Amino acid sequence: xxxxxxxxxxxxxxxxxxxxxxxxxxxxxxxxxxxxxxxxxxxxxxxxxxxxxxxxxxxxxxxx
Length: 64
Hints:
Layout: H1 19-29, H2 38-49
């Protein structure tokens, strides 16, 4: 088997079709002059994309 590496540019949104949707979502949810809390961001993203909130993964305090 032969593997051929095809390097892509670091910034190439035209190669990723979902990039357009992410760009519009970011403009509608982010604050240009402030920082949102995780809960505020989650609420805005779910409202924009019309999805339900899912339970977040939690890391237990004691990991052994």
